[in-house]
Every structure is written in C-alpha cells, then in structure tokens.
C-alpha cells in the first residue's frame, strides 16, 4: 500500500524521534495536523502531544468530504462526497514540524492524505483529492521526466480592514496610496508582527510595501521549491489571520472587495532549475527565532536556471524556458480557472485601469499581458489572484510546462507594446475568460491542464466551482434591484 511505503520510508523513524525530542524540549502540549482543501482552506485535527508516535504511524481519520470543506451544494447535498463515503487517513510529515510562535505550547504539521486501509478499491492508496500530495507527486514525475524542478516565488497582496458597528469587515485600515511610506507606517504594528511570526516559521522575508488599495499590503519571502512555497503561502495566510485577531482588525484575502481601486493579486514568479540541493539554513539572524525541525529551515540552493538567456539578447529567455512558457501561454485560458478561482476574481479583470491582465500573451516589462519576463531567468504569471489554491496552481503549471517542453510549443514573439495599442494596430490576441463559468468551460476542454488535477481532483474542483457559479447566477443582488426595480413602465 502507498500508505505503508510512506510510513516505512527510510529515515522516517529517526525524524519521528527528533520531533519527540523537540516536543519535550519545547514543552509542546498539543499538535495541529493540517491539510489543504480543494479551495485552499486549511483543514485538519488536533491531538495531545503525548500521542505523537501513534498518530505518526497510524495517522488520523476524517471524512472524505473535509477535502471539499464539508460544504453543501444548492440542493443541500454534500459537495464531492456523501455521508456514506469512507474516511481518509492523514499521516503527519515530521519534517514539517513547527512551533506556533503565538501559541508556543502548540506544534503544527502538514499531512499527506490516503485512502482508508480497509477500502475495497485501492486500499491505502494516495488520496487524489489531496491537492498538496498531488503537487508533490506531479513535481517528482516532472523532474524525473525533464530533469528540472519548478521554483516559484509569490507576491501575496491582501487587505487589512476595519470592522463596522455590526462587526462586519468594511473599510480599509489605510488609504489607497501605492508605495507611500506613511500609509505603510500606519500599518507598522501589523506588518512587523506578521514579519516576526513569519521569520519564526521559516519564511525568509525579503521586502514589502503598501499597495494601491485601502489597507493593502504585500509582504514577500524568498522563492523556493514549488511545494515549499505553497506551504509558506498557506502559513502566511494563517499568520495574517492570527495577527488580525491580535489587533482587532480583519485580514482580507478576498480578491476584489472594493471597485474603483486595485484588487489583490498573487503573481507567481517561476523558473525551472537543473541541479541544486536542499539545504538547511537559518532564517535571518533573529536570536528570538523559535526552533522548528532541527532548529533550521530548508531551502533549495544552487543549480542552473534554465530560463536564463542563452543568446546575446539579455532579455530573451533560454530555449528551454521559451518552450515551457509556450505551454503556459498556450493553455492560459484553461489555467485561468485555477488562477482566478472565484466569481469575485473576475471583478478584478473587469475593473479596467488597474493593470489586471486580460489577454493571453507575454512580453518583457509589460504589465498588460498575462505573462511577462519580470527579470532575467524569471517569468511572472500575472493572471493569479489572492484566492488561489497554490497547490492546484503549481500542479497545473507543471502540466502546461510539460506540454510545452514535450511538444516544443512556441509562445510567439514577446509583445513590447501596450497590448491595447497593439490590438488597435491590428494584432489578434486571445482574451482570457471573463467569468468563472467561461473559465470552467475552458478547463473542461483542456485535457492537458486537467492532468494537473489527477484522479478525483478535476471532478471535485469542477463540481465545487460549478455550484459556486450557479449560486451566483441564482442570486438577486443590490445591483439587480437598483438597475431593474423601477425600469418599467
């Protein structure tokens, strides 16, 4: 069984013992065992720390539907899995152990999910509704096939909001002035606390700024292996939620809470690397860093960036990079269903004038296209927003890149003009889907991108998001009433 191979992997027993030493040394009393749902929501269970060895070997059980948030569809039925479905088994990964800096009596793990050992079909197999486990396995397959690994750095914009008199999130905490240090300073207690917690949990924080929406910050960490970066983005979201609770404000990851100002994007900067090794390095020089696994944090170092230019043109990506990006450009419309995953995502694309890309094209320092070369050896995928599930985004990008490399797909010439001016001059450009329903149709037509959603994952994602779009289409909004209530006679 896959589950037995995973539990009995060489060296795992030693890691389990190391965690026990850390639990005892740090006074850990309780453990959070977490995984990530189809929509990116953090799910899981908690156990007393004295049961660590048992759960590390046998895991915990939880209903399959937890991977679908245990939400109901419009008909009142559970999405994805009914109450008659079996229970999954979650196995914690000892190398992901981390002490929570705001609750030092609690340790946290990421888990890999499996089918139950007693199931009649594929007992103990990897659960394909585990987006995190899927990404790890797809990345391993990609590396075995092409000899390269995907490294990603994300730019997670989000907004800090005040509560109104009814306890509902409403106005931004600061004014919508991009790059203004004074507005950045107004959120200093929040941003510095986020950075402190992030550093203690292994995020190598490198820069940040105030963006151009109310209360909007972007705090960045160093790029890394696609799976570790996705874990860090998930951790960052947890940190922001905790800091918001401590400060009596709201951490908003909704893509477009306000019209007329910028939405929150999550640009993915990506490159393929050959070689390089995982290394344990200390995150910064903060003497107050809380110890995680082995008192260190793992990063990938070294290797050859295959996206770097290989001609005299210092901007043009290398041959391998162009093929990989050719795959992304070719499948950009279907990928939009993953990168722009909610009904609200498309408010970002419709609200013109705020640099949100709506065209399937690429360029150099060109923010009017879906992709751009943000620096030599690095492509920035811009059609991604703050609600993205980074595990699904990573796995579908791998599928698109695999197609580009396998079939030598040409991304076309880079567009250096403003895309709107280029179109006025006669260029034909495909537009990205402009609604969640349209994007899901593009995904349904793409066998390639669906390879990044293996097993049950595509069925579950499509079901969840079709229901979400249907709920939107069957809702009367304030706009409907204002537009049509008194339009006749």
UniProtKB/TrEMBL annotation:
Keyword Lyase carried by entry: no
Cofactor(s) needed by this chain: Mg(2+)
The organism's place on the tree of life at top rank: Bacteria
Pfam families per the UniProt record, alphabetical: Gln-synt_C
Ligase listed as a keyword: yes
One BP term from GO: glutamine biosynthetic process
GS catalytic domain boundaries: 131-489
Keywords linked to the UniProt accession: Ligase
Gene Ontology MF: a single term: glutamine synthetase activity
Record-stated family: Belongs to the glutamine synthetase family.
Stated name of the protein: Glutamine synthetase
Organism of origin: Roseovarius indicus
